[in-house]
Amino acid sequence: MTHLRLDDRFARELPELAVRWKAEEAPDPRLLVLNEPLATELGVNADWLRTPDGVRLLVGNSVPTGATPVAQAYAGHQFGGFAPRLGDGRALLLGEFVGEDGRLRDLHLKGSGHTPFARAGDGLAAVGPMLREYLVSEAMHALGIPTTRSLAVVATGRRVQRETVLDGAVLARVASSHLRVGSFQYAAATGDRDLLRRLADHAIARHHPQAAEAPHPYLGLFEAVVSAQARLIARWMLVGFVHGVMNTDNMTISGETIDYGPCAFMDVYDPETVFSSIDMWGRYAYGNQPAVATWNLARFAEALLPLLADDLDEAVGMAEAALGAFARQYETAFTAGMRAKLGLSAADEAAAAPLLDELPKLLVDNHIDYTSFFRDLGRAARGDAEPVRGLFVDLAGFDAWLNRWRELAPDGAAMDRVNPVYIPRNHLVEEALTAAAGGDLAPFDRLLSAVTGPFDERPGLQRYAEPAPEEFGRYRTFCGT
After folding, report:
1. 149-161 and 165-175: which strand pairing?
2. How far is CA 37 from CA 15, 103, 107, 155, 250, in A?
3. Sign of the C-alpha dihedral, residues 386, 425, 345, 348?
4. For residue range 71-118, what is the model confidence (pLDDT) as tens digits?
5. Which residues are CB-contacts of 414 (< 8 A; sequence separation ≥ 6)?
6. In the chain, domain spans
7. How far apart are CA 297 and CA 467, in angstroms?
8. What per-residue string of b and e applies to 175-211 under the rule 16 or more CB within 10 Å gives b?
9. Which of 42, 64, 462, 476 is the most exposed, fewest CB within 10 Å of its CB?
10. Which phi-psi region, left, alpha or beta, contains residue 304 (left: φ > 0; alpha: ψ -120 to 50)?
11. Could you tell me the sign of the dihedral formed by the alpha carbons of 430, 35, 111, 166, in that order?
12. Are residues 178 and 106 in contact, defined by beta-carbon separation less than 8 angstroms?
């Protein structure tokens, strides 16, 4: 399709969760980056998106017939504290559309202006954080991790006041939907059981249709979300991704990664790694992510209790049993993924188990760069062990582990297919965003090119595979509001 044809299904089916709203007028919209491969995948003409009409669509100032832009309502636990009314304070759901592959998707704007949910915020966004989400979400997609996708970043021509005055921007992103655990918390908090049921039916139809055939469809929905999130968090952990703000309003029903605020990839392996400037106690540290996901899913279960059974004790028992599957499914996904990272097959499961158990301590004690380790280990599988050995201070301890690993005949080529060379390393992200803030997008484009082809080592990109220099220091990210 040349132009997007947007539907307003969410607004029609769940009006209690949708506030009709308009994006603020962008005084001088200018396209900064357009995801042409994604546009092609969606069946949208990229050349048209570059026209004035296309750019106005991407900031919400030109709305197709049939679309009803809305700010979505949701609640959420933020750092453990419940907020009954959050919602899209600076975002709009423009509408839903069916792509060339027949899948239904949301087109959603971020930074499009103040909405009734904005509270004290201005509803705007700056160029840097929107480019960050574009870069990291596309890197995650290239790594094979379920995620929202970024279609475009458009500079608005409006200045945004933060610690300093910055250039404003809008991110246009695409997702299977923007339904969150917080959506269900909001519906449950209203006490309107019919609304909760309609929301659950909407989620089943959109994301987990197999649940409709289950003996208990709403239990089936919960089980499907538990399974999707177990697989997702395992994938985060396998690549060293730290989300940074795993509030319940940032956990999707689809199992996609959403809201790239204070996110980053871990450099030196450390389960206590925290990047968010506001996470003072490490609630959302790298190593805590599986436990936090379990906690969030428990909150989802609480919201669903009225639909699980009329008897509360029975409903709680059903939810607890289903939630118990998370740990098993996460461990299965993570262990299988780690064996793959080590080049070992399922047949090596028993022999691999002690190697997997011992590896985290070796990495921590020797302050090892997580991403470099696995790529260098792949070289060792092909006979060149010196690069990976050179990472370790305790060489005797590592050699003992390495020799036992080699006895299992690991597959180096298979390792290279799952262990990235290039990730959005924090010092490179900051370098690219700083340059972009000054009007130079070339570093951003080069980094984007590297991280969207993460597994294939390419000449001329060596610095994109190297850890941060020591002078880069301790990294902190911000939520971007």
Report:
1. antiparallel
2. 33, 16, 16, 21, 26
3. positive
4. 999 999 999 999 999 999 999 999 999 888 889 999 999 999 999 998
5. 340, 343
6. 9-175, 181-335
7. 35
8. bbbbbbbbbbbbbbeeeeeebbebbbbbbbebbbeeb
9. 462
10. alpha
11. positive
12. yes
Distance separating alpha carbons of residues 327 and 111, to the nearest angstrom: 36
Quote the DSSP letter at residue 287: G
Question: How many residues does the structure list for the chain?
Answer: 481
State mean pLDDT over 335-345. Answer: 96
Query: Which residue from 324, 241, 235, 320 is spatially nearest to 275, judged by alpha carbons?
Result: 241
Residue entry with tokens 């582990």: 401
**Side-chain-facing half-sphere of 102: CA atoms under 13 Å:** 0
One-letter amino acid identity for 102? G
Residue 428 makes CB contacts below 8 A (sequence gap 6+) with 447, 463, 464
Angstrom distance (rounded) from CA 405 to CA 410: 7
313 annotated active-site = no
Q: Furthest-apart CA pair in the chain: how many Å?
A: 68
User: Number of H helices and number of E strands within the chain?
Assistant: 18, 11
From residue 453, give the alpha-carbon distance in Å to each of 102, 143, 419, 447, 457.
Answer: 26, 8, 12, 10, 9
> CA nearest 268: which of 373, 359, 375?
373
* Cβ–Cβ < 8 Å for 343, 381: yes
**Chain centroid to CA 41:** 20
Local structure of 424: helix, strand or coil: coil
Are 299 and 246 in contact by the 8 Å Cβ rule? The answer is no
Give 480's contacts (C-beta < 8 A, 6+ positions apart).
125, 126, 128, 129, 130, 132, 133, 261, 262
Which tokens go with 189? 């908090």
Which candidate in 106, 249, 279, 376 is catalytic? Answer: 249
**What residue type is 310 in one-letter code?**
D
Name residue 435's amino acid: A
DSSP character for 87?
Answer: -
Would you give the distance in Å from CA 197 to the centre of its chain? 27
Which tens digit of pLDDT belongs to each residue from 252-302?
999 999 999 889 999 999 999 998 778 778 899 999 999 999 999 999 999
